[in-house]
Specification:
heterodimer, A: MetI-like fold, two-stranded antiparallel ribbon, 2 strands, flat, B: alpha/beta, D-Maltodextrin-Binding Protein, domain 2, five-stranded mixed β-sheet, 15 strands, transport (chain A), transmembrane helix (chain A)
Chain lengths: 309, 437
């Protein structure tokens, strides 16, 4: 506004308005530029780069120039049963961990907005795992779940059989889910708590007058009113879990027997450990495509629900 | 035919002796430089996983600067885990830095095939006979030399005399002709554990190909791959199944612990908690400082098998884009060959097994070998490095190979059926190696 006033010496009001509009656009562009530039540099350029790179083939390592190979990388990936199993595993992993994390985070959030004593302390305790660097918590959990570690000592003391955890193909991925959720639940809970606190108290009062029970209140008031934070949490959690990497790299290296080889870890290993940058780029493109599919699906489901109500 | 043409080209270039600082942007192939008689004035960048301070590389570099005052060494340390990817990225920059880098011996074929190592054949192949054969061969790919070895390694069986006495077990013989069998070791280690040892037996490096490759080889198996360029997975023979079955039984029977990592094995033996351990000579100086009453014997062999022991260490390679090839060559030669078996072995304070025969004598003269057990160790090390050592497989696909092998060993350790672990890993490696076919 102040900018428009400084150049307000034009005769015709229409032209003045048009000039002001142009000025506004100009300054709008200036202020948006950092965001737009970083969007292009940090998002679009690498995405285009990954897609382009995935269409080339090169000898591993960085010296010998790559040659155009079309969809050869994708064809060889899909011809590999191991890679197909990795895709299925990644999707199943996400279909379990995302709803589970959000459900638990929501239940904890609902519990922690009730009038219970020391509520601040409980909220802090739930949030503490988030503040620990993930590498640190992975190392600690790795030690705790060691076959001869403290968790098995407790299980044995209580009369149970020691569990293999990370060393058995049947439990390793589940153990990773537990660690990821230990960190994730407290984090997503925080968003849901603030969402819950934003729901007007009158709605609950009205429900009470209508003699709605707690379940009915939860389903008809809490959930619909929480749609926005829920959508955000769902999308952000899905993205976070599709690119989950540190626990796999630190604790299992993709094993035992490939049971924890998720797509993100596979792409890292292909690109950096094996030096096959182009094949790794193809894996990243596929990972992004699958992730986008799920995210768009979530947007769609939650929006349609919104329109029908 | 191609080799002959290349050799002719090399000779022609050598004859014209056009000097080393060729600043062209494409990788110049062999030739164009020689090891000069007088030192040039230059600064070379050297990349290693060793550090000046903790690993005392400063002593080595100081000694080099004293011998070659006009060549300044700019020494850079990168953690072991990221060394390979750092070399990959830095050499690909084509700016010539680092001039010299530490090359993990089994990765040399890949470095050469990727164009990340300079051909050293004409400059250094004349020193072939000064090295242990396996150490020199580790630097050879397609009949050319790409890196010069500066160190070597082997493995020995250490035992804790107190724990053996407690179990009423005889001490294994230090003689290389009276090698213990793995079968006997397994039985005795179990007895020692029953008599109170926390661990019956430890490998220094569980689940690692370096440590475990000799097991199937002792039984007549291949080192893991065969065929053209060693790019065909070859570890499903009976020898491999038998070796892996034995490895898995160590953990199933409680002779070796499931949850101990390779970083925890040395402290366990040095703390008197393990009866037997197979580990490298780097344990010797630490044993000298410890309170353990220890003895040493050659690494065991399977009943009816032929002795085979791990070997290999580090070499030095040159960046093909280096602008200081002559100075770099002087540095490599001084480290590996000069001063009676290599400046690296001579001036590094910690005893490090040499790759050269002369350097081995420098190594054996260090004071860890003066005790009776030290003398036993020296005799065994000398014998194993020259008679029973088997190199890790030489293939341009080594990185994928080692990653998948180590995972397979870990799976067997965790109770996977050896045969199905072998089949799964074979399939995985076939896919990973497709790009080289």
């Amino acid at each position: 506004m102040s900018v428009a006033r400084t150049t307000a010496d034009r005769p015709a009001p229409l032209r003045r308005r048009r000039a002001g509009r142009r000025q506004e656009l100009f300054w709008g562009a200036v202020f948006l530029a950092p965001v737009l530039v970083s969007l292009v540099v940090l998002r679009i350029v690498p995405a285009v780069g990954a897609i382009t790179s995935s269409l080339y083939k090169a000898f591993p390592g960085g010296i010998i120039p790559a040659t155009y190979a079309g969809l050869a990388n994708y064809r060889s990936l899909f011809a590999d049963p191991g890679f197909n199993a990795t895709i299925v595993r990644t999707i199943v992993f996400n279909l379990i961990i995302n709803p589970a994390q959000i459900l638990v985070a929501l239940l904890v959030a609902v519990l922690l907005v009730q009038r219970i004593p020391l509520v601040g302390l409980w909220r802090t305790l739930m949030f503490v795992p988030v503040t620990i660097p993930i590498v640190g918590s992975c190392i600690a959990w790795g030690a705790a779940l060691n076959p001869e570690g403290p968790v098995n000592a407790i299980i044995s003391a209580l009369g149970g059989d020691p569990q293999p955890f990370f060393t058995s193909p049947g439990q390793a991925l589940a153990s990773i889910m537990v660690i990821a959720s230990w960190i994730g639940i407290g984090y997503w809970m925080l968003f849901l708590v603030s969402g819950l606190q934003a729901i007007p108290e009158e709605l609950y009062d009205a429900a009470k007058i209508d003699r709605a029970g707690p379940v009915r209140t939860f389903l008809s008031i809490t959930i619909p009113m929480l749609r926005r934070p829920l959508l955000f949490v769902l999308v952000a959690d899905t993205v976070a879990n599709f690119v989950l990497f540190v626990p796999v790299q630190l604790l299992t290296g993709g094993g035992p027997q490939s049971s924890t080889t998720l797509l993100m870890f596979e792409a890292y290993r292909t690109s950096f450990a094996y030096g096959s940058r182009n094949l790794g780029a193809a894996q990243v493109v596929l990972l992004t495509a699958i992730m986008l599919f799920f995210v768009l699906l979530q947007f769609r489901l939650l929006r349609e629900e919104g329109e029908s109500s | 035919m191609l080799g002959a043409v290349a050799a002719l080209g090399t000779t022609a270039l050598l004859a014209t002796a056009c000097g080393g600082s060729d600043a062209s942007s494409s990788a110049p192939s062999a030739g164009g430089w020689t090891v000069p008689v007088s030192d040039p004035t230059a600064t070379i960048n050297v990349l290693s996983h060793l550090s000046l301070k903790n690993d005392k590389m400063q002593d080595v570099i100081d000694a080099f600067q004293k011998a070659h005052p006009t060549i300044k060494v700019n020494f850079e340390t990168i953690p072991f885990d990221s060394l390979a990817s750092t070399i990959d990225a830095r050499v690909a920059n084509k700016d010539g830095s680092p001039d010299v880098y530490w090359a993990d011996q089994p990765r040399i074929s890949a470095l050469a095939a990727r164009g990340e190592a300079e051909d050293l054949t004409s400059a250094f192949s004349q020193y072939k006979d000064t090295f242990a054969p396996t150490a020199y061969d580790a630097g050879v790919y397609q009949d050319k030399l790409w890196a010069l070895p500066i160190a070597n390694s082997t493995q020995l069986l250490y035992y804790n005399k107190d724990l053996l006495k407690k179990a009423g077990l005889p001490e294994p013989s230090a003689s290389v002709d009276q090698r213990m069998t793995w079968e006997q070791l397994t039985t005795d280690a179990k007895k020692a554990k029953d008599a109170g040892a926390q661990y019956g037996f430890l490998f220094g490096q569980f689940d690692r190909y370096y440590q475990l490759e000799p097991l199937p080889v002792q039984l007549g198996g291949s080192p893991g791959a065969s065929g053209d360029g060693n790019l065909t997975p070859d570890f499903s023979s009976d020898a491999w199944v038998k070796a892996l079955t034995w490895y898995g039984s160590l953990f199933a029977d409680g002779v070796a612990p499931k949850g101990v990592t390779s970083e925890q094995t040395d402290p366990a033996f040095l703390g008197g908690r393990a009866a037997y351990m197979v580990e490298g000579p780097w344990l010797l100086p630490q044993l000298k400082e410890s309170k353990v009453d220890w003895g040493v014997a050659p690494q065991p062999v399977f009943e009816g098998g032929k002795p085979a022991t791990p070997t290999g260490s580090w070499s030095l390679a040159m960046n093909p884009f280096s602008k200081q090839k002559e100075a770099a060559a002087i540095f490599i030669k001084w480290m590996a060959v000069d001063d009676g078996g290599g400046g690296y072995i001579k001036y590094l304070p910690a005893p490090e097994l040499a790759a050269s025969t002369e350097g081995k004598q420098v190594y054996f003269a260090k004071d860890v070998f003066s005790s009776p057990q030290g003398k036993d160790a020296a005799t065994i090390i000398d014998f194993e490095t020259s008679s029973t050592a088997v190199n890790r497989i030489s293939t341009i696909g080594y990185i994928e190979f080692e990653t998948i092998m180590n995972q397979m060993f870990a799976d067997v350790r965790n109770g996977a059926d050896p045969k199905s672990a072998i089949d799964a890993s074979t399939a995985q490696l076939k896919t990973a190696w497709q790009k080289y076919q």
